[in-house]
Amino acid sequence: MRVALVSRAVFPLHGYGGLERHVAALEKYLRLEGCDVTLYTTPPSSGAGTARERTVFVPYRMIPWPRRKGFAILDRDSNYLAWSLRAARRLLANERADVVQADGGAGFGYAFLARAKSPPLILHPHGMEEFQAPMAKRALYLPLRSATRFAARRAARVLAPDRSMKSDVLSNLGIDEGKVTLVPNAIDLSEIDREVAPVDLGIPPEARVLLSVGRLESNKGFSFLVRALSRIRKDFLWVVVGEGPERGALEAEIEREGLRLHARLLGPMTDDRLHALYERCDLFVHPTLYEGSSLVTLEAMAHGKPVIATRVGGIPDKVVDGQSGILVPPGDVEALAQAIVEALSGGGRLGSWGARGRALVETRFSWSRRVKELVTLYEEVLRSEAEERNPP
User: Fold this and answer.
1) Quick one: CATH architecture of 2-186+366-389?
2) How far apart are CA 154 and CA 117, in angstroms?
């Protein structure tokens, strides 16, 4: 089967975010399943990787808005959607795909330009958290949200990335339930379990490490976590991996709350160092205010780590409250502090929570299982469309 993937970013060419890792794993496992995959994406800024196998680089033009702080929303509302149209023209001109899968707004161009006999579109609604953003931000994202809704209406199927998010997919995208198929996001356990050289993290061996991973933006809730940590005994080291526009404000808040000696903002880091940090930490804390599927939560569980997270987005499908971690309401500083104290004082319970989380990832969220469901879905869509075109 010939599959075209349309996404603005893929790991490692464009960073280490959730979208990038999802696309890289999807491409890898579709090929392992025997599919002929072509990826349509943006050129890497460094120029490295331009000889990448079966990849079509579609230029991303920065007119009229630059892609930098203060212009990100304008960029996604204009340049990103224009890029999706260019990518769709290249894809349709190649005429090689049997099925097309696109991420969120990247599917707009194909949905707009495809015709009756074009390959069917499978839409993965990445970025659903923007539909839950504060009112002002939602208003600014109206063009992107409208484009994603348009793509969803034209798609043959829309994927629900978690059971707890299915209702959000239906309401946010305004589509019929019969068009939505539950195909939970997954992670690549072979990458997590592979042997790597020892990494010196510079962390004292006796330190109790709390780890958080995510872009430093207000919606990730790190400010609430700082206030929660200031309320508990200072016998921990909080390590944060990620970069973003709120770094300065977060550093200032850490200083105000007296946590300078107990917190480290490490910025972005290599794959090996990140997985070494997952292995080293005692507890993973994800205080996000709103969320999509949350791949970092799955990664922590795959490393056998207990998780404290907020009850938002697709997280309740992963973290089983009281069994693999603790769920708290978003923005509730007291509940977050209490959960951390409860977890750290649990002794051997942390290990049992981590083991249950790992088992859940293996049975429900590994790519080796998920890809077979996805290929079966592609085959069902192709059969259905063939029957519609050639009724008995």
Assistant:
1) 3-Layer(aba) Sandwich (3.40)
2) 13
